[in-house]
Amino acid sequence: MIAAALVALSLFGERQSIFERGQTITRHHHVAGWTVRVLWDRFTGDISCTVRKGHMELLNDVLVFHSSTWVDTSDAVFRIDGGPARSVHEATYEDQRRGYYRQGGSLENPSAGAVALPSYYVTNAKWVYIRADAQRAPDGFDVRGFPQALALARAQKCPNLGP
User: Fold this and answer.
1) What is the pLDDT of residues 97-135, one digit of tens each?
2) For all residues of the chain together, what is the average pLDDT?
3) Is residue 10 domain-resident?
4) Range of 138's domain?
5) Which of these, 52, 60, 80, 86, could form a disulfide with 99 (CB 3.0-4.6 Å)?
């Protein structure tokens, strides 16, 4: 009788610990200075991912560059490596087509310091330079290794990363 009670308690305890272990499993992968964080929901099987390096993050196949939140980048210009300076407005349609919509910031600074570019703009680049306005020096972002990070995220079955 006591043995049966101990077996029942141990089974109940084991069963309970399976459910208490946590509902998600998180793995961090590092490649070329980038971090790919993969979150797997054990209950639903859903996977979500973040791909980051410094002040950059990949969202819906769009690479978002973050300056200080007080910097208004609404009319910023960007340059990829030694290429020509281009307006951030040229990327807006592609960003939205890829599912990225800038969140409305304050009326004084609707950008909240963020600039989003489709990931294919920077796939073969080394540096992206973003200048908020003519009075401010450009911020430089080291995007080297991005293709490897993107390939790793795709290999992990991360959703919304484009073709």
Assistant:
1) 777 766 655 444 567 889 999 999 999 999 999 999 999
2) 83
3) no
4) 23-155
5) 60
Beta partners for residue 58, in sequence order: 51, 63
50 occurs within a structural domain? yes
Identity of the residue numbered 58: L
The model's pTM is 0.78
Report whether pLDDT(1) > 80: no
Both tokens of 119, joined, read 């990931």
What residues have CB less than 8 Å from 99, skipping those under 6 apart?
A: 60, 61, 62, 160
Does the residue 148 lie in any domain? yes
> What one-character-per-residue DSSP string does 1-65 give?
-HHHHHHHHHHHHHHHHHHHT-SEEEEEEEETTEEEEEEEETTT--EEEEEEETTEEEETTEEEE
Q: Is residue 72 part of a domain?
A: yes
R_g of the chain computed on alpha carbons = 22
Mean pLDDT over residues 32-37, rounded?
Answer: 96
- The confidence score (pLDDT) of residue 92 equals 80
Q: What's the number of domains the chain is made of? A: 1
